[in-house]
Amino acid sequence: MKTFVESDQGLVRTRNEDYTEIFEKNGVILMAVADGMGGHRAGDVASRMSLKCLKIAFENFDVSISKEDAKKWIGKVFEKINNIIHQEAEKTAEYIGMGTTLVTALISPAYIIIGNVGDSRAYITTDEDILMQVTEDHTLVAELYRQGELSIDELETHPNKNILLQAIGTEEDIVVDVFDLEGGRPKKILLCSDGLTGMITNEVIENTLSKLVEIDIMGRELIAKANENGGKDNITVAIWSREGGEKNGD
Description:
By secondary structure, the protein is an alpha+beta fold. It has helices at residues 42-59, 67-91, 140-146, 152-157, 194-197, 202-209, 215-228; strands spanning 2-8, 18-25, 28-37, 99-100, 102-107, 112-117, 121-125, 131-133, 177-180, 188-192, 235-241, 247-249.
């Protein structure tokens, strides 16, 4: 297998508040993307803090636990990170209201589990190179769409499309989405911030991930396409491929 991560500031933002990491322990991989929010660099603090906490938690992760216990572990880790960031925000004036999205992929030989809070996304591709979105956005417009109050076309043009219903650190309590990827291992897994998905379509993502090139080329091409379309936000991608054998990226 092979992994790649990279984060780009984009063409509009004055700083990069996204953060991404890949951790490995005894054949188990934990891949994560966080997209921070808040003034006075608080978004940068929140995203980096979330992955620092995730790293510490993973260092103590028991790679031999069952799939069901791993799913519970993901949920508990998200909740703990939420508490840590929320408490930090409450005690430091310039961090009030800070938060971050967080999407993770826990990949072991026995299972693949996705965790998510916010609107960063996890996708997989099948052996036929068909792209499938695993996560559901925790946004106002996505919820309105799920309730049948908005059409798919209205999602992209809605004035409140960037309003999050929940994020890590902004409230005391969160509801963590945990997905068990059953039915065979995907060909690729993509985690990304909305700086990617807000600039390019799922069709472009699918076509790029299906190319017969190394995943670092795929990842950088995705970022380049997002910038070509305006680069209005920070752009972050983390890719796992079933094929290959080395780690690439920053």
